[in-house]
Amino acid sequence: MRTDTGQVFHLEDYKPTDFLIPETHLDFRLHPERTIVKSTLKIERREGVALDTPLILDGDELKLESICIDGVALGDNTYVVTPDRLEIRGLPEAETFTLEITTEINPTANRQLTGLYRSSNVYCTQCEAEGFRRITYYLDRPDLLSVYTVRVEAETSAAPLLLSNGNPGEKGTLDDGRHFAIWHDPHPKPAYLFALVAGDLGVITDTFTTASGRPVNLGIYVEHGKESRALYAMDALKRSMAWDEEKFGREYDLDVFNIVAVSDFNMGAMENKGLNVFNDKYVLAEPDTATDVDYAGIEAVIAHEYFHNWTGNRITCRDWFQLCLKEGLTVYRDHEFSADMRSRAVKRIAEVKGLKAHQFPEDAGPLAHPVRPRQFREINNFYTSTVYEKGSEVVRMIRTILGAETFRKGMDLYFERHDGDAATIEDFIKVFEDASGEDLSQFALWYDQAGTPNLAITYDYDQATKTFEIEIEQSLKPTPGQPSKKPMHIPIQFGLLGTKGREIRPRATKGGLVKDDVIHLRKRKERFTFSGITERPVPSLLRGFSAPVTMTSELTRSDLAFLARNDRDEVTRWQALTQLLNSKLTSNSKRVRGGKPATIESSSIRLLGELAFNNALDEAFRALCLNVPSESDIARELGANIDPEAILGSRDALILAVAEAHGEKFEQLYNELEHHGAFNPDAAGAGRRSLRNVLLDYLSVADGNPKRASKQFKQANNMTERAAALNVLVQRFGTSTATNDALQAFEARYGNDALVMDKWFVVQAMQPGESALGKVNELMKHQLFSLDNPNRTRSLIGAFSSGNQTGFNRADGKGYQFFAETILTIDKKNAQLAARLLTAMRSWRSFEPERREHAREALASIASVAGLSTDVRDIVERTLA
Ligand SMILES: [Zn+2]
Questions:
Q1: Residue 596: which pLDDT band, with cuts at 50, 70 and 90?
Q2: Whole-angstrom Cα distance, residue 293 to residue 664?
Q3: Helix (H) or strand (E) holding 349
C-alpha cells in the first residue's frame, strides 16, 4: 500500500521522458509467493539529453534482486534503490543500451489487486493506472510505448494455461514439471496495457473474420464448469467486432482475442491489448443466474473493452490527465452500440438516469472536478462518473453540433492522424475543427469547467407579430478550485409543438444561432426569436437530453403533461413526466415531516395510467415511466436539508395512490404480460419483464400483503422475475414469513455460487429503515462474505452506503459510524476499493443538520487516522474540505 506523501501532480508539469524503451522483454517464473520477474529493456537516450542524466524508474513495494547493463552487474554506488524508485547514474555513453532488472514479488500476498496477484489460484494482472510498477521497475506512464515479448513459466499442473498480450509464439515443457509459453505483441503499448494470466481455466472458443479477411481466434476463459455461462458474452463480442467495422471502420489487428473472467477484480473489466481481463460479473450469464440488467451490462462492457482496442490502445493517452480521451470516447461508442442493439430511446433514458444519479451529485459536491482534471494526488480516484459518463456526453455534444456525417469525418481523421500516438484532448478537438472548419475553442470549456450548467428559460409569444421568443440564461456554480466560470457552448435540440402535438416549423429565426433543430447557446444570456408561428407553441427543449444540464423554465404543469403525452421524442416525454412528479414529491418530502402528507394530484395519476396502458409505446419505456423518481432522485432535487424518512414517506404515498387508482387495470396488465415460452434476453423480452416487475410492486402495495410477490418468486423460470419478486418482498414486507422463506430458498438454491449470492446480499442491504444496519452486520459474518473480495464488499457495504437512503443515513448516525470503521479495515487490504466506497459520503452536506453533524464526525474519524492510503486520504480530505 502506498501511504500518503501529500504529493500533487499537475497537468502543466508534463515533460516527455529523457529515455525511450523501444523493446521490453519480460520473463516470469511464476510461484505463488516468490515470483521472479526478469525484465530486459532496450533503452534509448533521447536526442539532446545530457549524458549524466540519470534514468529514474518507478516501483511500488518492489524488491530488487539484481541489475545489470549490457550484461555487466552494476556497482552499488551507481544506483539508488527503494521499494518505489530506482535511480541509475553513470549510464553508458552509447545512444542505446540494454538494462536487465530482476525483481521478486509475492502474488498471493497482493490484496490490493493491482500488479500481479493470485485470485482463486489464477495468476492475473491489473496494471491501469500504475500497477505495472508493482511488477518491475519501469517508466510506468502512458506516453512510453514499447514492443513487448513475454515469456511465462509455471508449474504445468497448477497453471496449464499461460496467456499474455499479442499473438502466441513458441511454447514447451521443461523437465521439472514446469512449462512455458512466449507471447509477442507487435503493437507498441504503454505498460498499463500489459497483462498476464496463468492458471487452470475452462474455455469457449469461436472465430471472427474481419472485413479484410483476417481470421481471429476468440477465447473466453472462465472457471471450469461455467463455460455455458460465457456464451452470451461471446455473442456480444462478435456483434461488437462487426459493429465497430460497420459504424467506425475499425478492424481488429491481432490473430487472437482473449477474455478471462476472474472473481477478484477492482474494476468492471480491463482492455489489455488482445487479453481483456474481466470481473466475472460482466461475463457470466444464464437465465437462471442473471437478470436482464446483467445481460445488458455484459453486452455493454464486452463492447466497451473491445472498442478500446482503437480508442485507448492504438491511440492512447499522453498522461493520466487525458483519461477522458479514451474513456469518454469509448463510453460514447458503447452507448451507441447498445442503442443500436436495443431501443435507442429507452437506452438514452437509462443513460440520463445514470448520469443524474451519479454524475450530477459528483458535480454538485466537494469531489467535483473537470472532465479533464488539471491536478490529482491519486489517479485511481479519477476513474469517476465525470470522466466516463460526462466525458461521453461531451463527445455526444460534438456529434450534435457538427452533425453525424462531419462527426464521422472527424473520427476518421483522428484514427488516421493519431494511430500509434499518445494523444491529448487538444489533438481530439483539433480533428473535429479540421474536419468541419469550425472553431471549437469555446466548446472545449466542457473539458475544463466542472459543475452542471443550469439553463433558466423564459418564453414570450406575440400573437400580433406571430413571433415566439425563447430567452436562455446559463449559469454555472463555483466548484473546488474554480470560483468563476465562462459561458459554454451548449447545444439544445428542440421542437415547437402546436395543437395536438403538431410540430410547428418556424419561418425564420433571429438572435442567437439556430441550425436545423439545434439552438446553439453561446452567450451567458441569449435570445432566440422564431417568426411565422401562428399559435402559442409548447416548446420541447433538450430533446434526446442533448446536453448534460439542468433546466428551470416557465412551463406550466399542463405544458409538462402535454409534452409527456405528445412529444415525438420519448426522452422529453419521460423528462416532462419526471419533472411533474418530482415537483410534488419534493414538496411533499418537506411537508410529511411532522405533518400529514399532501395529496397527490389526480391529473398526474391519470397521466401515469395513460402511459402505462398505451400499447403503442415500448414496454420498456412504459416501465421507465412507472418507475417513479427514486429516493435519491428526490434527494438530489431537494439539494439541501434532506430527511430520508420524509422522502421515503412521500414516495410511498405516491405509489400507493397510483396503485389504488389503477389497481384493476394493473392486475389485468400484469397477468397479460406473463410469458410462458423460453427466456430470451433480448430487448423485447426484457422490456416486457421490466413492465411486469414494476407492476408487481404497485400491486403488492395495493394488496398490502406479500402473496403475489411470493407466488412470482416461486414460479419464476428466470432470475429477472425471481430477483424482482425478492426485492418487493424485502422492500415492502421485510419482516414477513414469506420474505424469510424466499431468502432461505434463494440461499439454498444459490448458496454455492458467490456471484449469484451477491444479489442476495444487495437486496438485504437495501432493506429500508433502521433495521438494515443490524442486517448488514449479521451478513458480514456469512460464510460467503469477505472484505477481501471487491464484488462481495460492493454488494453489501457498497449497496448499503450508496443505495439505502434510510438505512445508511439513520438519524442517530450509527450507519456512518459503522461505515467509517469498515472503510478503515478495507483500506488496509485494498486502498482503491476503500476510496471508491467512501465517495458514498460525498453529499453529506445536503442532509438536515443532525445527520450532517453525524456524517462530519464519521468523516473526521477517518481523517484522524495516521497511515491512511493516498487513495482514502485524498477522498476524505476533499470530502471534508
Ligand atoms: Zn474503459
A1: low
A2: 28
A3: helix 344-354
Answer yes or no: are the C-beta atoms of 769 and 807 closer than 8 Å. yes
Question: Grid coordinates representing 49?
Answer: 539529453
What's the burial of 30, exposed, middle or buried (CB within 10 Å: 0-12/13-18/19+)? buried
Residue 399, phi then psi, degrees to nearest 5: -65, -40
Angstrom distance (rounded) from CA 236 to CA 847? 42
| pLDDT score at 359 | 98
Ligand 1 centroid, distance to 30 Cα (angstroms): 28
438 catalytically annotated:
no
| 308 Cα: distance to centroid of ligand 1 (angstroms) | 7
What pTM value is reported for the model?
0.98
- Structural contact between residues 391 and 446, judged by C-beta atoms closer than 8 angstroms: no
Q: Which of 164, 143, 139, 152 is nearest to 31 (CA)?
A: 152
CA 87 to centroid of ligand 1, rounded, Å: 32
Quick check: 845 and 856 in contact, CB under 8 A? no
On the question of pLDDT at 2 being above 80, the answer is no
Instruction: Give the Å distances, CA to CA, from 428 to 331, 435, 622.
Output: 15, 11, 38
Which residue among 130, 305, 327, 393 is the active-site one?
Answer: 305
Distance CA 299, CA 236 (A): 5
Rounded to whole angstroms, the Cα distance separating 207 from 486 reads: 51
CA distances for 553 relative to 471, 538, 540, angstroms: 10, 12, 11
The residues with which 100 forms a beta bridge, in sequence order, are 40, 68
